[in-house]
Amino acid sequence: MVTFETTIKDKKVKMYADVPLKNAAGAIFQTLANISTKTNIFSEKFIMSFGWAYFFMSKREDENKEEFWVVQTTDYKKNPMQDRTDNVTVSLLVQNMQVEGIKVAGLKPENCTFKDTILVLKKAVNQEDIYLSRTEAANKGDSGWYFGLLNDPDEDKHTSDEYEKVPTYQLLNFRSEALRVLQMPVGTVAVIHKNELTALVDKDDKPLKFTTEQERQKILAERKKEEAAAAEKKDN
Question: CB neighbours of 34 closer than 8 A, spacing ≥ 6?
Fold first, then answer.
């Protein structure tokens, strides 16, 4: 477990994750610091909506009885609508995915949270080739996203019982790559093969840029190499 730590308003604040998501954690800390200039964040009742995820503050004491605060997030393995966890890994990973996706595509984000609903064609859930398209939200709490089967010959024949509205966090269970596009604006269409994004277009059907899994792994490897070289230089 990796521990991130900062000081806000003279109070020690910690965050825990399974992987060293330093930039994502830093963005959360900076946002909390900004909010703290206008409101009291050091409360068990405090809730911060940051992109797709929610974050909370929990008061603790260390072995020396010194106070510190832990940044928590929703627990997607239990009931995200009410359960919280100290492990912010999933929220930070999704944050990274969505920020990277928006930046590369050159789009202005339109918010979608973990509890906003997505309309899912049930038969598409276990299929290799699916697509997502976003239209104007029908009501509050609706993301406007649709999860359907690519090249579906019966697309205009499905009955209402063949669809289901589910919170977007459930995509973690059957198509996590779909989370990458959720902050993209109305009109966006994404195609996913298995669990890899293969096509992305805007409201005018113009192709948008995106990175492949292979490209992301290459970037990650280069970043780790640079960090290792910097650490070695520092030690010497």
Answer: none
